[in-house]
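Box 3.1 A note on notation
Throughout this textbook, protein chains are presented in two layers. The first layer is the amino acid sequence; the second is a token string describing backbone geometry. Keep the layers aligned when reading.
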Amino acid sequence: MATREQRATAEVLVALDDVRERLSELAEPRGTQRPRAEMLRAVEDISEAVARLEAEVARGTGLSVEAAAQYLDVSAPTVRAWTQRGVLERKPGSKPMQIDRDSVRRVHRALGELRSRGQDRDWLATLVDYLHDVSDRRSESVRTGLDDLARGDLEPA
């Protein structure tokens, strides 16, 4: 089981990774090279810090349901529901339940896009359905079936 410090570190890793991603986007060529070069150096520094922190955190450590809910700005029951649907990935064998950091970040980016477009519940439902479909496509049995279909070994219903 993860310690409180490990869970806190996992939460910091998620936030640091977001900052690194934003800096990377800002560093895209748009003007003079000097500010861009400075931003790229900052991104490299943050990347190194994230790598060091990652090495310190046990590989199996995720976010608590409450931390994931706070980060995503949704309720804990919503996080549990999204975990049941496969939108968020649960760390196997974790008690209490922990949510995979990468899946939380993926959903956070998608929610950010959704929220930038407005507070439309239909958009949210569509987003959850899309993320569920993406999660299904990662399933070995679904990938095998799609490969069989592409080769012509199966016919669609």
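The chain has seven helices and two strands. The first helix runs from residue 4 to 26.
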